[in-house]
């Protein structure tokens, strides 16, 4: 009597495993992996192996749950530095850009498909947002390294534009179902309510998640489960109270991910696995729900609509939205091209079917074809397009592994593992700074102490204890000659500092509170007092919200040139930006 349970589990796990193994071929041929998952669902569906799945309500429920997991992880993996850098253009694209895209596609749908005004706008709203899963996969997992501002804009836009598309789609579906010819002012009130509650609950929920993780003592494996449960609880609660749950989980992920968290690396690994599972389940499920035999009737209009979206609507929307932000022409072209549509659009196309609107299945079939064209045409050509536009930069060398250490007291360090590459600074004899504490070297399968090694050689595995904020600076030392690491300013400080000046000059510029006895010390003497007398190039001395960095030393080990770096750790208040301008004035006056 319970054989059906085993059958369901057998089929579900079989599709999951088949999707994972099929991904091996996708990596080899450069195919968009999410497209592969979609085709696995199509192959197993009613027009393939014959599996029947036609419950629109269940499909929308499963897809919404998976999307919430994906958006939370998207926010969790976005650094505040990237967000600040690209928030303006990304949020403009996520709001105004979605409206422009929906309007332009709506005009095309009205002309090409002969739909009414609201029906055409509904079709435009459904395909109005880019897909977070597709964009994040192609940029992060696909290892397409483009310039940081462009990359950050794409990632933040794709993670934050779904709430706008969902809101527009729901409003238009309800208006058409109620026979309303045009939405009234209540739409604007509803928009403000949904987005406002989404932001407020997201900020509060993300902060609460971070505080809870750091305040309670649990079995280590329970922290990721608690965080995911909290994110889904926040998603549901915000939706029940009339807000955008999708926006709330993205903002919560952004807030929590940029604070110092206990077991942060374990959290990220767990969420990475859950995000993969959510993406596979969502795409395979949507493939199962579709019926390719019904696509033929909708194909001509859908193909034309897809080309309008890709070559007209998205580029125009990007160009208009980015005019105030100073992007170069080729960056705008690339941002316009990476407007992949994916599972979100297919998920929204189920709503007209659930609402039993006239031509409800036409919406779904048309959107499904548009998504297929987008994933094939745009997803397969992102790397060649980035190369043609000369936007690809060589990737930085990062650690092979990172292990967070819970040390007694307030110490917070990680054990990171690097492999020395040929031609890297450390392979050419550069010394590791004192804030990086090498504990072990693995060479030719033999372990040895760092003190036993005269010089690191290519192929060595180096185990280093360091604070998390310094890891990206270590990347620079282990990068090969063809890799573009962080700018030297990251390593040596953003601003020049005269080490002969008294420390109180910095305190006045940055509003620092100095301990007794150091205000009149020179910067060089202050650094010497903190490092034990003789300074070394790369030494860093913290002073509240800034760090003093040793750039050069004289023969006696005294600091002869120094830099100033701004501390940007998660959860650390940013220094007053006016200090940068005042420091420039100070340098000019000194000259």
Please specify the SSE layout and strand pairing.
Layout: H1 3-29, H2 33-44, H3 56-76, H4 80-113, H5 117-126, H6 132-141, H7 148-160, H8 162-178, H9 186-215, H10 222-240, H11 245-257, H12 264-289, H13 295-322, H14 329-337, H15 343-348, H16 350-354, H17 360-377, H18 382-388, E1 401-406, E2 412-419, E3 437-443, E4 446-448, E5 461-466, H19 471-478, H20 488-492, E6 495-497, H21 504-510, H22 523-531, E7 540-543, E8 546-553, E9 559-566, H23 578-590
Antiparallel strand pairs: 1-2, 2-5, 3-4, 3-5, 6-9, 7-8, 8-9
Main location: membrane
Pfam family, one: CorC_HlyC
GO cellular component, one term: plasma membrane
Description:
By secondary structure, the protein is an alpha+beta fold. It folds into three domains: 3-46 and 56-388, Na+/H+ antiporter like fold (Up-down Bundle); 401-486, 2-Layer Sandwich (Alpha-Beta Plaits); 490-590, Uridine Diphospho-n-acetylenolpyruvylglucosamine Reductase, domain 3. Helices cover 59% and strands 9% of the residues. Strands 1-2-5-3-4 form a five-stranded antiparallel beta sheet. α1 crosses α12, α4 packs across α13 and α9 packs parallel to α11. It is elongated and about 85 Å long. The chain starts with a helix and ends with a helix. Mean pLDDT is 81; it is low at 482-487 and 569-591.
């Amino acid at each position: 009597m319970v054989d059906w349970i085993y059958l369901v589990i057998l089929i579900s796990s079989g599709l999951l495993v088949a999707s994972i193994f099929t991904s091996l071929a996708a990596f080899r041929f450069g195919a968009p992996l999410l497209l592969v998952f979609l085709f696995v669902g199509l192959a197993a569906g009613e027009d393939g192996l014959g599996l029947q799945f036609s419950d629109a309500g269940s499909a929308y429920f499963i897809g919404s749950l998976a999307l919430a997991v994906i958006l939370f992880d998207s926010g969790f993996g976005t650094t505040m530095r990237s967000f600040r850098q690209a928030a303006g253009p990304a949020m403009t694209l996520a709001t105004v850009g979605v409206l422009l895209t929906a309007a332009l596609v709506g005009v095309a749908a009205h002309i090409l498909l002969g739909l009414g005004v609201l029906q055409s706008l509904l079709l435009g709203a459904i395909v109005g947002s880019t897909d977070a899963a597709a964009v994040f996969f192609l940029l992060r997992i696909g290892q397409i390294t483009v310039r940081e501002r462009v990359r950050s804009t794409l990632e933040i836009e794709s993670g934050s534009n779904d709430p706008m598309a969902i809101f527009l789609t729901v409003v238009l579906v309800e208006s058409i179902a109620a026979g309303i010819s045009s939405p009234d002012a209540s739409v604007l009130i509803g928009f403000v309510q949904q987005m406002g509650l989404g932001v407020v609950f997201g900020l509060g929920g993300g902060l609460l998640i971070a505080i809870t993780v750091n305040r309670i003592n649990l079995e280590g494996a329970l922290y990721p489960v608690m965080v995911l449960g909290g994110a889904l609880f926040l998603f549901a609660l915000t939706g029940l109270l009339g807000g955008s749950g999708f926006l709330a989980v993205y903002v919560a992920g952004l807030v929590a991910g940029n604070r110092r968290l206990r077991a942060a690396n374990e959290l990220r690994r767990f969420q990475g696995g859950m995000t993969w599972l959510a993406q596979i389940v969502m795409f395979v499920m949507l493939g199962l729900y579709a019926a390719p035999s019904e696509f033929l009737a909708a194909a001509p209009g859908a193909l034309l609509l897809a080309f309008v979206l890709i070559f007209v609507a998205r580029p125009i929307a990007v160009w208009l939205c980015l005019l105030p932000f100073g992007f170069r022409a080729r960056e705008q072209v690339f941002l316009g091209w990476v407007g992949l549509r994916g599972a979100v659009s297919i998920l929204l196309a189920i709503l007209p079917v659930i609402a039993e609107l006239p031509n409800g299945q036409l919406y779904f079939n048309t959107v499904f074809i548009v998504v297929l064209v987008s994933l094939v045409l745009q997803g397969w050509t992102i790397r060649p397009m980035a190369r043609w536009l000369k936007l690809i930069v060589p990737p930085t060398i990062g650690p092979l592994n990172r292990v967070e250490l819970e040390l007694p007291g307030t110490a917070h360090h990680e054990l990171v593992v690097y492999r020395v590459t040929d031609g890297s600074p450390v392979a050419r004899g550069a010394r590791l700074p004192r804030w990086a504490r090498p504990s072990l070297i693995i060479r030719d399968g033999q372990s040895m102490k760092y003190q036993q090694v005269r010089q690191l050689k290519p192929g060595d595995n180096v185990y280093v204890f360091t604070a998390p904020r310094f890891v990206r600076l270590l990347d620079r030392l282990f990068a090969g000659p063809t890799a573009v690491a962080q700018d030297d300013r990251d390593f040596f400080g953003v601003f020049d500092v005269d080490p002969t000046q008294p420390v109180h000059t910095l305190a006045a510029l940055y509003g620092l509170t100095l301990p007794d006895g150091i205000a009149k010390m020179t910067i060089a003497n202050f650094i010497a007092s903190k490092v034990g007398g003789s300074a070394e190039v790369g030494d860093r001395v913290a002073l509240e919200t800034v760090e003093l960095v040793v750039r050069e030393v004289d023969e006696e080990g005294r600091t002869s040139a120094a830099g100033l770096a701004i501390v940007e750790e998660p959860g650390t208040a940013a220094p007053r930006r006016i200090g940068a301008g005042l420091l420039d004035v100070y340098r000019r006056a000194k000259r």
